[in-house]
Amino acid sequence: MGKFFSILCVCVFFLSACSGSEDNQSRELAPLPEVTCLAVLPVMVPVAESSRLTADRKKVLLAGASYLNSVMATEFGDGTEYKLLTENQLDAILGDPWGGREHQVKIIGDATRCGAVLETSLTRYRDRVGTPMSAETPASAAFSMELMDATSGVVLWTSSFDETQKALFEDIFSFDKAQKRGFKWLSVEELSGDGLKNRLKEIPFFKEDAAE
Known about the structure:
Layout: E1 15-19, E2 26-28, E3 38-40, H1 47-50, H2 55-76, E4 82-84, H3 87-94, H4 101-112, E5 116-126, E6 129-130, E7 135-137, E8 140-149, E9 155-167, H5 175-180, H6 188-200, H7 204-211
Parallel strand pairs: 3-4, 3-5
Antiparallel strand pairs: 1-9, 2-9, 5-8, 6-7, 8-9
Helix pairs in contact: 2-6
């Protein structure tokens, strides 16, 4: 990924995706300042995670990151409130990758003229082995998100997604989610895409924009 944010290192037929973690939620850590736009960074695979992976697994994670980028592009649209950066654009903005996270966030804010920066890190992306009606191995994905103040570098909001789909009889309280997903085994694109869309709706700026 070049210099991409280098310092910063988502009965067997009746299914539901349920979380493998209690951390599947969003947290607003500080009030969102008055901002006119968000700089949205490309989904990254953390350096620390990438260094432990085989070439094949890294390739799968990078493909997952690319897919989630396409989901973000669709969800955010072409509005001026969201500036989606490519890896090449981010590398060009940062230039020298050193200087620490806070410094890098400020540089991104200055270059995009956005008051907040959204970062997403993908750490697991495993596809279903089987069919929508019968799976030997379920889809599984995990990612985390942070919204940062471009002026101070302070984290304003965080969210995470960590889910491995399970059969309904393993989680009888998730019938509504199973029904929404069509009582089938999801592909990793469906699982992670659904999780990302739900997390994006929780971003303070995104919620205010949707309310208008």
